[in-house]
Design goal:
This protein has one domain: Divalent-metal-dependent TIM barrel enzymes (TIM Barrel, Alpha-Beta Barrel). The chain contains 12 helices and 14 strands. The strands form 4 sheets. It has an 8-stranded parallel β-barrel with strand order 3-4-5-6-7-10-11-14, surrounded by 4 helices. A two-stranded antiparallel sheet has the order 1-2. About 5% of the residues have low confidence. The protein is globular, with a radius of gyration of 18 Å. It is 39% helix and 18% strand. The relative contact order is 0.15. By secondary structure, the protein is an alpha/beta fold.
């Protein structure tokens, strides 16, 4: 199976808010519980391509509330028009919050379509220029700054989603840190893929402490360190409970469950992951 990172490379490219927090604080009543669970729709990519509306209905029935889309063979919204997916998700009690896109020749249309959906974020899903060097990451930071200005004009926030390769080094400098240092934190947000950070040998919490408030979006996934791939929650090496307990440090606003590989049917994994989160006490 082609992994999502391979797909993205070949194609070129969670402040706990009082109202929107994914954690339902219960104060003296007991531990916090997770609510407003989101999902990256690439997790059910084939299902979305085959039957977008039916798949969204299944996700809503499981309990997912927040959505993040991803580019597909049928476009940004799996064959649905921007206003169409906005109405469908609203009718199901869900909200399209974000979308994975490329900063490419279609960028202007991409921003316009996102504005039609009413989503809050546009996330660049892979580097817009190739090269594992500080100079290329500096170039990408400049591209991100310009892209963020375009998004701001449309009332959208721009961000970037990491993989594992951004944590490679040149002359001792972590390339991901170049992006953080050379972009305005108010303009260029970061969606942290927690699984890839851990598999790269780094601790997301260290980044939350060093760059407080820089990571309003998360991809929440568990990872099998032996197979170097994603797996169902509780079956891998990621301490999901600990990460969720530190959500406030990153000012996480939304998190999206993502799984790229499966032991069985994708929808069974999607249901398992939702139920796993519902059983956690923070």
């Amino acid at each position: 199976m082609t992994s999502r990172r391979d797909f993205l490379r070949s194609s070129g490219c969670l402040a706990l808010g009082a109202l929107l927090s994914p954690l339902a604080t219960q104060a003296a009543k007991g531990p916090a519980k997770i609510k407003d669970v989101g999902i990256q729709l690439y997790t059910v990519r084939n299902e979305m391509l085959a039957d977008a509306v039916g798949t969204l209905k299944q996700l809503a029935a499981i309990g997912y509330k927040q959505l993040e889309s991803a580019r597909s063979a049928k476009g940004l919204y799996y064959g649905l028009q921007p206003k169409e997916i906005r109405k469908i998700t609203q009718d199901l009690g869900m909200t399209l919050r974000s979308g994975h896109v490329a900063v490419d020749k279609d960028w202007e249309r991409t921003v316009a379509a996102a504005a039609e959906t009413g989503q809050e974020y546009l996330i660049c899903s892979s580097l817009p220029a190739e090269g594992q060097t500080v100079s290329n990451y500096t170039r990408c930071a400049d591209i991100f700054s310009k892209s963020a200005e375009d998004c701001k004009k449309a009332g959208i926030l721009f961000g970037y989603h990491n993989h594992e390769y951004e944590f490679e080094k040149e002359n001792g400098q972590v390339l991901y840190d170049v992006l953080l240092a050379q972009t305005d934190p108010e303009m260029v947000k970061m969606e942290m893929d927690l699984g890839w950070v851990v598999l790269s040998g780094y601790d997301p919490i260290d980044y939350f402490n060093k760059y407080p408030g820089r990571f309003p979006l998360w991809h929440l996934k568990d990872m099998d360190k032996t197979k170097l791939q994603s797996t169902e929650f509780g079956k891998g090496a990621i301490n999901i409970k600990q990460l969720m307990q530190n959500a406030g440090k990153s000012k996480m606003k939304y998190f999206f469950v993502e799984q790229e590989e499966y032991a069985g049917e994708p929808m069974a994994s999607v249901k398992h992951n939702y139920n796993y989160l519902q059983k956690l006490s923070l």
